[in-house]
């Protein structure tokens, strides 16, 4: 077989099956061929310039839609420019979509799923009951402190006019906790009778405690024993309290101007902050408190703000307990003492310290630092159980006092009961529990898939394409700069 190639040097090349012979001028053999461009049939345009070589190598090595059109020899300059505009436009579209998806991911969107489920048994909440009046007059009269306590509670300047008594109290040691317990309305004073699921209960079913409203008592609050539960809704499957307001024993209060009780249904692990929550119940009324249980599950950082931290005085974290610790620390730093319901190493404030500093510190905490404390140091619990309370009231009928009072109350006449008795029903309105669950709405995988979908739609690109681009640049860098200028294959 022989092939003739005509050129300016009149070369003639002859190829044979068994070998080859070449005839040419020796001088012309030594001269380099100054070819600037070689056009292959139906093949790419290959240029010997360094950047053109890089450009051609990139377009042939990376499997990205449209790149091969830029080096196809059959495509003229105009068509290649059009394809270049298309590729750059689609690249810009893909980059825009990528930035949008990253911005969406950084917003940490969440979805909220609300599910209402019916249960055969539902745990009953803890119930805390506090009298609006803090100290009983008959008890303060016994220790000749009625005027002094009234001055403290009503924040009167006459407190300073009792220096002798003030010195005597300080000398004997003042304890708000002991005085709340000894001088306040105790369980036996306030609770005349009770029923649990239509069966009588007694004082052993309750526990006394101190709160921000003084001495109170609680039902179903002992976390060391199993929680009580109900298997049906309605007043017959709840708690009935017969409460004695003891209006004739009222002196005054810092926590309100009403008469009656403050009642709160809460989780057993929560600290009841009675001043900021609860339902007011007045004497002479029959009050129905219908409760609905709600369970909330929130997402922690980076999508949410819920969380917890170790508390100094409480083993179980709750927002209310953390907030109480914040208040205790704030008041201790300002006044060097604390209120009786607060836990910590600070001593109880004396009446004079409470009057001059403690009460103001509590107000300053609410107005200046409470929000910061909750946001920075007391995050919301990730899992909480709350109890929504619906209240309705009706006056107690006269026939009840005339016909039934003797069956329930001993040594209480009808006139007294009309002024002081409060009947309270606490029960579930339904066995449905509302569960609110937060979920991550946009994950890392969602973002990657959306970005991949955008580039795939615009350029036919995939993760493999990205790896090919990385492979090309790494290989090119090593071969051109770290390997003595060896060109990439």
Descriptive labels:
14 helices, elongated, 489 residues
Question: What does it look like?
Answer:
This protein is α+β, with helices and mostly antiparallel strands and 489 residues long. 37% of the residues lie in helices and 23% in strands. The chain contains 14 helices and 18 strands. It has helices at residues 26-30, 50-61, 77-106, 137-142, 146-153, 163-172, 176-183, 187-190, 319-335, 351-377, 398-408, 414-420, 444-459, 463-482, and strands at 12-15, 20-23, 38-39, 45-46, 110-118, 122-123, 126-131, 191-196, 199-200, 206-211, 214-219, 229-230, 239-244, 261-266, 279-281, 285-297, 383-395, 421-440. Strands 5, 8, 9, 13, 16, 17 and 18 form a 7-stranded mixed beta sheet that branches. The protein has a 5-stranded antiparallel beta sheet with strand order 10-11-7-14-15. The chain is elongated and about 115 Å long. Residues 1-48 have low confidence and may be disordered.
Helix segment count? 14
Strand content: 15-25%
**Number of β-strand runs:** 18
N/C terminus separation: 32 Å
Can you give the mean pLDDT?
78
Question: Which stretches are poorly predicted, pLDDT < 50 over at least 5 residues?
Answer: 1-48
Structural class, by secondary structure, is: alpha+beta
Overall shape: it is elongated
Q: Secondary structure elements and their pairing?
A:
Elements: E1 12-15, E2 20-23, H1 26-30, E3 38-39, E4 45-46, H2 50-61, H3 77-106, E5 110-118, E6 122-123, E7 126-131, H4 137-142, H5 146-153, H6 163-172, H7 176-183, H8 187-190, E8 191-196, E9 199-200, E10 206-211, E11 214-219, E12 229-230, E13 239-244, E14 261-266, E15 279-281, E16 285-297, H9 319-335, H10 351-377, E17 383-395, H11 398-408, H12 414-420, E18 421-440, H13 444-459, H14 463-482
Parallel strand pairs: 16-18
Antiparallel strand pairs: 1-2, 3-4, 5-18, 6-12, 7-11, 7-14, 8-9, 8-13, 10-11, 13-18, 14-15, 16-17
Helix pairs in contact: 3-13, 9-10
